[in-house]
Amino acid sequence: MGSKASGKLARAAKRVRGMKARSMVGLGLLLLTLFLVTLPIIALVVIAFGDAGDVWPHLVSTVLPRSVMTTIWLMLGVGTMTALIGVSTAWLVTMCRFPGQQIFQWALLIPLAIPTYIVAYASVELLDYSGPAQSALRWLFGFRNARDYWFPEVRSLGGAIVVMSLVLYPYVYLTSRATFLLQSACALDVSRTLGAGPVRLFAAVALPLARPAIVVGITLAMMECLNDIGAVQFFGVKTLTFSVYDTWLNRASLAGAAQISTVMLLVVLLLLWIERRGRRQQRYAVTSRRYQALPSYQLSGLRSILAMLVCLAPIVLGFLLPAMVLLRSAILNWSENLSADYFSAMGNSLFLSSFAAILTASVGITLAYFARLQKNRLVAGFTRIASIGYAVPGTVLAVGILIPVASLDNFIASSMRDLFGISTGLLIIGSGAAMLYAYCVRFMAMSYGAGETGLQRVSPNLEAAARTLGRSPMRTLIEIDLPMIRPALVSGALLVFVDVMKELPATILLRPFNFDTLATLVYGQASLEAFEKGSLSALTIVAVGILPVILLSRTSTRSHQSE
């Protein structure tokens, strides 16, 4: 009996030691991810506050005042316009019944499929002096030149605000509609019994309850606005992002670019604080746990026509017209578009997107599962920090990554040359690994969030049953959890895949010499005022971008039906 008891104790101790070892592996992966995510930010701050000569006084006196003010006006304009479009359309499709309402519920998400820089290029093609809009205007009224009539200048701050708002409003639409769907029918019914009409009900009850969610959506739109470089550069709007790019590449001052990037980080931290505050306040938006069918208003006559026009306008202006411009240009210039450059860029984009999606999905689910096993505040805090890269603009991330990666590249090159007489060049930057590094840091939050959400739907009892049958945590994850959360993982990987396909700022700054993706090919042709030669590449990006829109639409529909 004594030997049996001692054998059981020995096996139990071995199991405990094994558990500790596995926990250390998970903790090691978490700390490595945390280090890789925070390294660019630390490097950025170090070089920005290091010995940079007299760059900072020059930036403060000449570059920053104009860039900061332009960025503020752009973000305020985009925030205001996305709020108007997103909230109004979300209220109409949620609370009103009119022809086409069911179609508009998902169609209003379609502009998310097209990047802001592509809409900017297509808008200029459509509205420029030589474009079809002004050509038709001159033909219709007999005008001879631009001095004979007035037409709004599309390449301006106002043009950038309108174009970017038409692409980014779905962020506000999604958060607003989700909150309108979850609002208690009891609160709205009480307001109706007190005589509140649809306008008063919206202004006095629904809008205050949805304010935190609206703030979150506006903040997300502003973050995307801050990250953009293709549209603002094409429109001639000198934001902080453009100043980082211009200071680094055109003025050959990495220190100056790092210092401007630190200013952008302060803006990002402010937006993150606003977004987190909005999420904390969202928990108070629901006034009852009884959910019934929401009261709806049947619109007819002129009101139904106006509702249809309000919902149709952003879809036409933000997606259909740009897509038609791309399609027409691709058809008219198909021989120039179907070039070796296009197929090479497509291959590069597919490889980078697939590799980044697989890598982030693997790391994301591992971190989410480790956090689920540990369940302590320290691990939860580390995982939140490890997934903060989504808030860092691609330009800032690229500047921060280049500093340590270039140092490591130079160290490897000098060591190989001194020890073996081999010239390796810049292995990490030259191979494109630096771009993958940037993609994984920036989009890790998507994979981690998808894995965390999927694991929350798995009953702990299933995992406990597997563990009592002798399954290790890793085998439990592989045999029990992964099959059950496969849709969530695929969704997260798909979002990463599409975002990498569209990513422009980090790709421009970190790509190897003579290396193009579809996004940089479009950017390069547009910079040469030859956008028609990159129209097929742009159309390919848009076609791929439709996939997550379909996914978002299905997810939104299913979650509403499950309430």
Q: What keyword list fits this structure?
A:
2 domains; globular; 24 helices; mainly alpha
How would you characterize this protein structure?
The longest helix has 47 residues, at 2-48. Strands 1-2 form a two-stranded parallel sheet. The protein contains 24 helices and two strands. Helix content is 79%, strand content 1%. The model is unreliable at 15-19, 284-292 and 559-563 (pLDDT under 50). The relative contact order is 0.13. The chain folds into two domains: 14-51 and 354-511, MetI-like (MetI-like fold); 54-304, Orthogonal Bundle (MetI-like fold). With 563 residues, it is mostly helical.
Largest sheet: 2 strands, parallel
User: How many separate domains make up the residues?
Assistant: 2
- Mean of residue pLDDT values: 80
Please give the alpha-carbon distance between the first and last residues: 57 Å
CATH architecture of the largest domain: Orthogonal Bundle
- Say what the CATH topology of the largest domain is: MetI-like fold
| CATH superfamily membership of the largest domain | MetI-like
CATH C-level label of the largest domain: Mainly Alpha
Stretches where pLDDT falls below 50 for ≥5 residues? Answer: 15-19, 284-292, 559-563
Content of β-strand: under 5%
Task: Output the strand order for the largest sheet.
Answer: 1-2
Element order, helices and strands? HHEHHHHHHHHHEHHHHHHHHHHHHH
